Each structure stands twice: as C-alpha cells, then as structure tokens.
Amino acid sequence: MTDASMWLRTWSKTAAPRATLLCFPPTGLGASTFRPWQEELGPDALVVGAQLPCREERIEEEPPHRVEEVAAETVRALDGLASTRSNPLTLVGVGSGTAMALEAAALLEAAGHPVRRVVLASGRPPHFVGTPGDETLEQATDILGQTDQEIIASGCSCLPGLDVAAQLDSWLVERMLTGFRATVAMIAEYRYAHPELACEIQAWHGSDDPLVRTEHNDGWREYTSGAFTARSFPDCHDYFTISRNAMPGALGELLSSDASANAAPGR
Prior knowledge:
Layout: H1 4-7, E1 8-10, E2 19-24, H2 35-41, E3 45-50, H3 67-78, E4 89-94, H4 97-110, E5 117-121, H5 135-144, H6 148-153, H7 162-168, H8 170-189, E6 200-206, H9 214-218, E7 228-233, H10 239-242, H11 246-263
Helix pairs in contact: 2-11, 3-4, 5-8, 7-8
C-alpha cells in the first residue's frame, strides 16, 4: 500500500476542513511550493501537496517516468487521509503538474470518488503535444540532448536554485537534473486515455505566456463534459509560481463561491 506520508504533504491541523485541494507542482519544484497557500486560504481549506520522488526530501529516490504512475500513487495515498473523504475535492496542477492532475482526476472519478473541479494552470493539454510546430516538444528534445553544464548555463527557470547548487554540491545538481529530465520526458510522452471528466475544469494561463497560448488554454475544454472556464492572468509562463498570491487568491474566490452556493436556501 502506498504510504501517504511519502507522496503527500499537509500543513493544517484542521480536523474538518470544508474543502480539500490536491496540488501537483511544476517541473523542478516540490510539495513545499504549496505550503504558503495553506496560510493564504485559511483553516476552511486543506491544502495537500503531492511530493514526487527525486524532489526535495525525496531527492535520493529515482524519479518517476510516467504520469500514470504519479497519479496512481497519489490517488492511493489520498485514501490514507481521512479528512479528504467527506468534503469537496479540487485538484490543482501547475505547469507539468497539469497532466498529473488531469490523470488523477480521471482515476478518482473512475473509482467513484467525486471531484468538485480541476484547476489547470500554465500547461498545454496532452493533445497539443507532438503536433506540428509544437514548441514544447522541440524544447523537450533540445533539453534532453543537452549536457548538465549546458542546462546550468542556460539559467533554466524550471530549476530554481540550480545555479547556486552548481557552486556547492555536484551530487545535488546531478539529482536535480535527473528529476528534471525525467519530468520533461514523461510529459512529452503522456497521452490521456480516459472518458471525459464529469467535473468542472478551470484552465488558467498568463496572457504573455509564449508556451501556453489562448488556444492551448481553451483546449482543456475537450477533457470535460461538465462546466468549463478559461481565465487569463496578466503575466508570463512562471506567473503562478513567481507571484505567490496569484493562485491562492483566485482559488480562494472559487472556494468562497462554493461556500455561498452551499449556504443558499434549499441547499
């Protein structure tokens, strides 16, 4: 059985939150990315960060090589958190985490676990991967062919702290780049193979993002038979990680709307 303490991180002691957010981080980042979100969203929400092997305190482990593996392990781990079983579940994916969130939502729905919504930020839908002119696949092929020193010299924003680590610890750099390459490869290979989701999808991107343009963001509509909303925020691809309050602020609006709807007469 999957150990929830390995795959999931939480930072709230609230026994009965009104909503749970299961969050998948972008390439190169770990579950701690979402720790500030817990304070921002307050005790009514339980923020759960997915912790992948070869990141943060799991840095010594070998990285996963398939999105399906990450989603399956995370969903199994979620069963170990009793507080997630009786309140609405929102899945959140940022960057490469969008594919993981989408796959996890499909597994949860197939298992009869209701999902309130999926929020997908700064990620291209799987059906855009490998299409003619796909810059992300070209970028992935280029990255996978680069040496460690070439990636370090490029100042890759997907690996925060890499330049500092390169000056201090060659082993840490090797582990960071091992995880980075594995994530790039598994996102390039991932294809969605499930029925449409029944839950709502919210697709968010930065208006100045050259990699996730409006047509890509709108493309997430194909993955649900439920409600769909596309939102554009004023910045670039890294908007949701650089601006700490961008996503929790928008997520808080969604949770407040849910609470108001549930409190309406007749509910």
